[in-house]
Amino acid sequence: MRQMQVFTFFRMIIWRRGLPAILAILSGIASVMAQAQSLDAGNPANEVIVKSGHFMARDHLVVDLQHGVEWMRCSVGQIWNGTDCEGVAVHLSQEDVARAIVIANAQLGPGWRLPSRAELEGLVCKACAPVKIEQDSFPNTLAEPYWTGEVNSFASRHIWTVNFMTGHTYGRFFPTQEVLVRLVRDR
Question: pTM of the entire structure?
């Protein structure tokens, strides 16, 4: 329940997309995060999951052991309910992503950002189907492109994305297009 409150702001981005409205709704999230960190370790929702050896999942976060980063387990717009990501993942433009990152850093602690191309490619599971990602660690990920934080150096008007339907990387999306998002931070 506490994790659901923590990620309410992602859902609000869809409905309001206004920074003042979102900030008003987010008052108190920091205290919810503090409470969430003191959760009962005997609760099955706090179970640590390690499948491939690349990721260690606990609660609403996944540690990427290869890249030394920490991922939000759910796509922006979804909410971790203790066992699964529920809700609708949000397609955001780069401008909207920038606002979501400011809010995430203010309310969930510093360091949240878009992943690098290599970091996001590191989530691709070639053997997984139909979605090319470990669903145990990242449940309900959509088989669609996700933003990276890198500009395509060959075509500077485009941003790199990683498509979890094919597992391929594409550098053809304009910043104004709306694409899915999963945030990351350094450990």
Answer: 0.74
Q: How many CB atoms lie within 10 A of CB 178?
A: 14
Query: In the prediction, which pLDDT does 47 show?
Result: 47
- What are the two backbone dihedrals, phi and then psi, of residue 142, each rounded to the nearest 5 degrees? -85, 150
Q: Which domain holds residue 89?
A: 2-38+45-186
**Series of mean pLDDT values for 10-residue runs along the chain (187 residues):** 45 47 35 37 44 83 94 94 95 97 91 97 93 95 97 96 97 97 97
Q: Quick check: 113 and 34 in contact, CB under 8 A?
A: no
Sign of the CA dihedral with 20 first, then 22, 28, and 30 last: negative
Instruction: Identify the pLDDT of residue 88.
Output: 96
How many domains is the chain partitioned into structurally? 1
E strands present in 40-129: 55-58, 61-64, 69-72, 78-80, 85-87
Question: Using CA atoms, how far apart are residues 177 and 183, in angstroms rounded to an integer?
Answer: 18
Q: What are phi and psi of 56, to 5 degrees?
A: -125, 110
Handedness of CA 64, 155, 101, 143 (dihedral sign): negative
**Strands ordered across the beta sheet of 55-58:** 55-58, 61-64, 69-72, 184-186
8 A C-beta contact, residue 94 and residue 175: yes
